[in-house]
Design a protein that fits this description.
Strand order of the largest sheet: 3-2-4-1-5-6-7
Shape: elongated
Number of helices: 14
Helix content: 25-40%
CATH architecture of the largest domain: 3-Layer(aba) Sandwich
Largest sheet: 7 strands, parallel
CATH superfamily of the largest domain: P-loop containing nucleotide triphosphate hydrolases
Structural class: alpha/beta
Distance between the termini: 48 Å
CATH class of the largest domain: Alpha Beta
CATH topology of the largest domain: Rossmann fold
Number of strands: 23
Length: about 450
């Protein structure tokens, strides 16, 4: 059957509940496949850290309905249990719509929903919250509920009394516990790569067994079974250059979908890791470099001192191709100003400095402004942004103003829901850098353009 874990809003405890169930399954020797709705990297990393198969993203906006159906069926069938962790509130999607929301995903996959609700300071007021979510959209099915932040045995008994006539199963009461609370940063949860103390699987498992009703949950965790295991995608038809692509992977840069490396390797392109945190040079055999998003602002001083890595970037740029997203783009500029106002020198490939600004988050529509390595003029893609930092052009003082960087142009126009298009990003024959994150495995046009460019 499988199920979707959702909530009325962010910070009700969805990830905590998913981790509790995952730790319980792991401690019992059961294989559980987790999924995360939306483009989230950090929740997905937390769930992947337990030791099960890696958590996989299900994003209708970026990948389309067919891709998420095939992904869900393919990977859930391989496990003893499976579950989908939702995003934000149950009906929150693109702009003011429910498109690409958790409810949208639940309907497409035909899965029941277990709602987790913050019970702090509420007893009878919980009833209209739950009824409202049950009645709002009759095309979804909310089968169970877990109450979070229950303050006492008395609080629990009062909630039971309120819900005793309701046609919904209560599947658990979670008291507040600082040991299962997850640390947060600017962009959500703190990545496991930045936390010295890892999740105590035994503690989480024992807590789950004590406070969740697994005799009820068990049937909702059993995965959907089908006779045929669908193939995700047909192979690309263009010629593949079977030389490796280097990918930045360390505690600084880790905002990437696990499917990206899998996809390249499945079509015959090997990948190699590169770490600027370890001051490594880019592997000589690499034909291209991918720098995903991350937190360069937190490690700006360490990056500025990584002379081998920065010099390697400059040399690589002269002869090979660099694709950089969000935080990956920031290290290609002249400077990063950290949160304390101190400037740190970066690679100096693109003429900008970066400093903290306002949060820019959400899905993006993309339209090609010119023919470039990833997008042709007037082609349309979808992506997303999630960052606090902003760029300031610094052409006058740019370190490399006399070389190839002077020929950089915006590859595309972007817009968010309800807004107009604006030029964004930097591109030339050796570079594509942008705030926008793409999902390569499901974006065949971008991937084909990218591989064709490398083959030239």
């Amino acid at each position: 059957m499988s199920c979707v874990l959702s909530a009325p809003s962010t910070d009700n405890g969805k990830t905590t509940l998913a981790l509790l169930i995952s730790c319980w399954a792991y401690s019992k020797g059961l294989k559980i496949q987790t999924f995360k709705v939306g483009p989230d990297y950090l929740d997905q990393q937390q769930l992947s850290s337990i030791g099960h198969p890696i958590c996989r993203n299900l994003d209708i906006f970026l990948s389309g309905e067919d891709w998420i159906k095939k992904t869900f069926i393919k990977y859930s069938q391989k496990a003893d249990f499976s579950l989908v962790e939702g995003a934000m509130g149950l009906f929150d999607g693109l702009g003011s719509t429910d498109y690409s929301s958790t409810a949208n995903v639940a309907k497409i996959l035909d899965l029941p929903i277990i709602l987790i609700v913050d019970a702090k300071g509420k007893v009878r007021s919980l009833l209209p919250i739950v009824r409202g979510f049950q009645d709002f959209d009759k095309k979804i099915s909310i089968k169970g509920i877990v109450f979070n932040n229950v303050s006492s045995e008395r609080h629990q008994e009062l909630i039971k009394e309120v819900f005793k006539q309701e046609p919904i199963e209560i599947m658990g009461f979670l008291p507040f516990n600082e040991h299962i609370n997850l640390k947060h940063g600017n962009l959500g949860l703190i990545s496991p790569s930045e936390i010295e103390k890892k999740i105590d699987i035994n503690y989480f498992s024992n807590f789950a067994e004590k406070h969740l009703n697994f005799s009820l949950l068990h049937k909702f965790l059993k995965p959907l079974r089908q006779e045929n295991n669908p193939i995700l995608d047909s192979p690309l038809t263009q010629k593949i250059i079977k030389k490796p692509i280097a990918i930045a992977e360390d505690r600084i840069f880790h905002f990437q979908y696990p499917e990206t490396k899998e996809f390249f390797e499945e079509i015959g392109i090997p990948t190699v890791s590169w770490s600027i945190y370890k001051n490594e040079k880019i592997p000589k055999e690499a034909i291209a470099l991918i720098i995903p998003g991350g937190f360069p602002e937190k490690y700006a001083e360490e990056i500025s001192l990584a002379s081998h890595s920065l010099n390697s970037l400059k040399e690589f740029y002269k002869r090979r191709f660099i694709y950089a997203e969000c935080g990956g783009m920031m290290i290609l500029g002249d400077l990063i100003k950290d949160e304390n106002g101190k400037n740190h020198k970066m690679a100096g490939i693109i003429p900008f400095s970066s400093s903290k600004g306002k949060l820019s988050v959400g899905y993006r529509y993309l339209k090609g402004a010119q023919n470039s390595s990833l997008i042709k003029q007037s082609e349309e893609f979808k992506g997303h942004e999630f960052h606090y930092w902003q760029l300031t052009k610094s052409i006058e003082n740019h370190q490399n103003s006399s070389n190839i960087s002077s020929h950089l142009n915006s590859p595309w126009e972007i817009r968010s829901w309800g807004n107009t298009y604006k030029l964004e990003g930097w591109a030339n024959e050796n570079l594509h850098a942008s705030w926008v994150h793409l999902h390569f495995p499901s974006n065949k046009v971008a991937t084909s353009n990218f591989l064709n460019h490398l083959a030239k």
